[in-house]
Write a sequence for this structure.
């Protein structure tokens, strides 16, 4: 008797310029997940507001040939996202479309993996990460920043750390996870009626704190860090406390130079945060 395939939902968001790279991502998804012995039912959701009809139709056709269910989610009211992007540096407003994706997706989509358009490929089975327990958190991700305790150990940053000026700066400017890929707990976001208004309120609050800074947070991942710090399930934590080990995320080339980075760079500037310590 055949077993039911487990469903994996993946989303990305982009404009027309980046849409041409999506087929490469789709091919990597199909090559590494469709043939897996576990067997997965794959659904890909592209959130956009500036992708041409021709490109959407090609992506739909290409997905069909691969065996991936493709769904277009067109954002009509872009003003809130443009407002959020205005304080996040050079990221386009499409990078923020994941913030309220639960409002657009059908209720049977209870979780979704967000991947950046153009710069993220699936290179193996992601089931261990995708089906991991959220442990009550809104987001699951791999950590890029820990806090050093008075005893020399490291611990995850919490929401109360936003009240400390230095910690808050490190959270929103340095971020605490890489937004190249992360999991969203859509069921929880729906239960809590999370809306864009809450992100706008947070942006306004940060503007009051930093009135003279044009780039307040580090793009979408800085805003996500400020919004969800203390509500993030760090994959592999607390067993793994090495920020250079980021399974299911980050760049392979980074590990080729990890020995060079450990002793210097930004980790040398902020050793109390950027440390590699397995305890």
């Amino acid at each position: 008797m055949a077993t039911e395939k487990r469903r994996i939902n993946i989303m990305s968001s982009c404009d027309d310029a980046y849409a041409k790279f999506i087929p490469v991502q789709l091919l990597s998804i199909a090559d590494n997940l469709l043939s897996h012995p576990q067997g997965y039912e794959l659904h890909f959701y592209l959130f956009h507001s500036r992708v041409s009809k021709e490109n959407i139709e090609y992506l739909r056709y290409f997905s069909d040939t691969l065996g991936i269910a493709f769904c277009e989610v067109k954002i009509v009211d872009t003003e809130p996202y443009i407002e959020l992007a205005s304080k996040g540096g050079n990221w386009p407003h499409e990078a923020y479309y994941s913030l309220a994706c639960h409002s657009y997706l059908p209720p049977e989509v209870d979780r979704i993996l967000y991947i950046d358009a153009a710069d993220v490929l699936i290179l193996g089975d992601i089931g261990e990460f995708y089906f991991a327990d959220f442990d009550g958190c809104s987001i699951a991700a791999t950590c890029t920043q820990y806090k050093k305790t008075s005893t020399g150990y490291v611990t995850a940053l919490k929401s109360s750390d936003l009240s400390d000026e230095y910690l808050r700066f490190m959270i929103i400017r340095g971020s605490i996870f890489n937004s190249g890929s992360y999991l969203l707990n859509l069921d929880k976001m729906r239960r809590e009626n999370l809306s864009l208004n809450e992100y706008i309120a947070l942006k306004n609050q940060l503007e009051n704190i930093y009135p003279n800074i044009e780039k307040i947070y580090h793009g979408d991942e800085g805003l996500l860090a400020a919004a969800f710090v203390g509500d993030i399930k760090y994959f592999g934590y607390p067993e793994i406390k090495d920020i250079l080990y980021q399974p299911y995320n980050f760049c392979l080339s980074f590990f080729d130079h990890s020995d060079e980075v450990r002793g210097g760079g930004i980790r040398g500037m902020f050793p109390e945060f950027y440390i590699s310590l397995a305890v």
User: Anything to note?
Assistant: The two ends are 45 Å apart (CA to CA). The chain has a mean pLDDT of 87. DSSP finds twelve helices and nine strands in the chain.
